[in-house]
Write a structure and sequence with these properties.
Blueprint: E1 15-24, E2 36-39, H1 46-51, E3 55-59, H2 62-70, H3 73-77, E4 81-85, E5 98-104, H4 113-126, E6 127-138, E7 146-155, E8 159-168, H5 176-186, E9 189-196, E10 199-205
Parallel strand pairs: 1-7, 2-3, 2-5, 3-4, 5-6
Antiparallel strand pairs: 6-10, 7-8, 9-10
The structure holds S-adenosylmethionine (SAM).
Length: 207
């Protein structure tokens, strides 16, 4: 049995919850002529809302796409998400299609290094030769069964979104250095690094 495996209902003491994590996306801009793919684009569709323009959204979960639709987020933004249902580790996309790929707290759901590597290899493959990857994610070191980060995301136009992203069970540990190594193995060059514990932002170039 793994050290974090439970044989009883989950309790508050099994959860590491980090509150009041502010992610400021008010200055996030990507030129309108660049093709953007957001990986794990459903739910609150934070990247789409931040950019306020047409994007391609890869999402594995139909229910997450439905949440975006039910919230009327495309109408609110006044632009379209071109949905692609599929797996970030095996994207149903051609090589070198996008100028920018974004991943907003999606890598954590790949869990182990092998699956994160598959995802970043795919991000590299679908980017054009001078493409850029923007990656936000948590450093997760807890020994508890469940990790939850509660984010307050600041968007342009004085908007804000409150979301909680959580993950439980084995193989949820994730580190900044580990992610940089995985990205380097995929072929990426690190362009920018910002650490706002417990989350980090990394920007990588394809060359
Ligand atoms: C924490 S959410 C990302 C942020 C979310 N787009 C938002 O704006 O709130 C992670 C998203 O990645 C999706 N996801 C998880 N595993 C995936 C996979 N293997 N392939 C594609 N999407 C995946 C989840 O369904 C979820 O919508």
């Amino acid at each position: 049995m793994g050290r974090a495996e439970l044989t009883r209902p989950i309790q508050a003491s099994d959860v590491e919850e980090i509150k009041n994590i502010v992610v400021d996306l008010r200055d996030l801009t990507i030129s309108a002529e660049l093709e953007v793919l957001d990986v794990g684009a459903g739910g609150e569709s934070v990247i789409f809302r931040s950019l306020g323009r047409e994007i391609y959204g890869l999402e594995s979960a139909e229910e997450e796409m439905n949440i975006t639709r039910e919230k009327g987020i495309e109408d609110i933004v006044g632009a379209k998400i071109h949905w692609i249902q599929g797996d970030a580790r095996e994207m149903p996309l051609d090589d070198r299609q996008f100028d920018v790929v974004t991943s907003f707290f999606t890598c954590m759901y790949m869990r182990d290094t092998e699956n994160k590597q598959k995802m970043l290899n795919e991000c590299y493959r679908v980017l054009k030769a001078d493409g850029v990857l923007y990656l936000w994610d948590f450093s997760i070191t807890t020994l508890k069964q469940v990790f939850v980060g509660k984010l307050e995301i600041l968007l342009p136009g004085d908007q804000a979104v409150s979301v909680s992203y959580g993950i439980g069970g084995e193989e949820k540990e994730q580190s900044l250095e580990g992610m940089k190594e995985i990205a380097a193995n995929a072929g990426f060059t690190l362009l920018q690094e910002e650490v706002n514990s417990p989350y980090f932002f990394l920007k990588f170039g394809k060359k």
